[in-house]
Amino acid sequence: MATQITDRTVLNNGVAMPWLGLGVWRVKDGEEVKLSVRSAIETGYESIDTAAVYGNEVGVGEAIRESGIARDKLFLTTKVWNADQGYETTLQAFNESIKKLGVDTLDLYLIHWPVKDKYTETWKALEKLYRDGYVRAIGVSNFHAHHLEELRAVSEIVPAVNQVEFHPLLNQRDLLGYCREHQIQMEAWSPLMQGNLQHPLLLELAEKYGKSPAQIVLRWDLDQKVVTIPKLITPERIRQNADVFDFSLEADDLEKITALNENKRFGPDPDNFNF
Asked: Is 161 domain-assigned?
């Protein structure tokens, strides 16, 4: 069980990844993303998750350098965007990302979405980057089990991570089970349901544990051994969401939150997305 912000899960290749990280989706490049990343690092976060399509890799890299924290103390993730998928174009996109970030290597590189007829070739590019030592771990994002099965049939390396929309209204039990069976670490994006936290049960549990509804949901993630990367901007909220390591949810309460599932997505369905 994660009991402090520096606690890490061990991925299927032996690399240690923090349980809690900062997501910067829809955070503007420049001062806004730099403030977010700096505040997170000052609070003790050791994982930053960005993506090429977010358009803020430059600011993320600048904030990391300005923090004064040694590069090897931070876990940095970015993703190849759909338009860049394919073997050669993925390699080019990776080079562009590390140039913008101002780093030589990444801790985790992900395929952002399973673009049909492209993601297997994209994965082969990620395998090359991994073998050549440019990336410590490779994984995918928004992959259903059938995408992972197709990848498994043609690949040599099992994805270390599958980053998907995951929250109390979309608990993805079947996919979570598949990932556990194949030693793929599940990671949650939009864990806070894009702010839709005013559910009576979450409010009730927030009062019971003396926490906010957001903290209850993040603890629910961690208690299920799901890595979580809430998107945050303000220093106060960044600090609040890190304050989830001094309690755990009782088994009955975990089950109650899980039972809220409605298979409701706030983002696109990977099987019905305009790639």
From this structure: yes
Does the annotation list 112 as a binding residue? yes
* Angular region, 195: left φ>0, alpha ψ -120 to 50, beta rest: left
Degrees, nearest 5: CA angle 199-202-203: 85
Question: Containing domain of residue 225, as a range?
Answer: 16-258
Q: Is residue 5, in this structure, part of any structural domain at all?
A: no
**Active-site positions?**
54
| Residue 45 C-alpha from the chain's centroid | 13
Going 80 to 170 to 137 to 120, the CA torsion angle's sign is: negative
Beta bridge partners of 47: 75
For 152-194, write each residue's pLDDT tens digit: 999 999 999 999 999 999 999 999 999 999 999 999 999 999 9
Query: Residue for token digits 């670490």?
Result: 185
Query: What CATH number should be reported for the domain holding residue 135?
Result: 3.20.20.100
pTM of the model: 0.97
pLDDT confidence of residue 142: 98
What is the Cα–Cα distance from 47 to 94, expressed in whole angstroms?
19
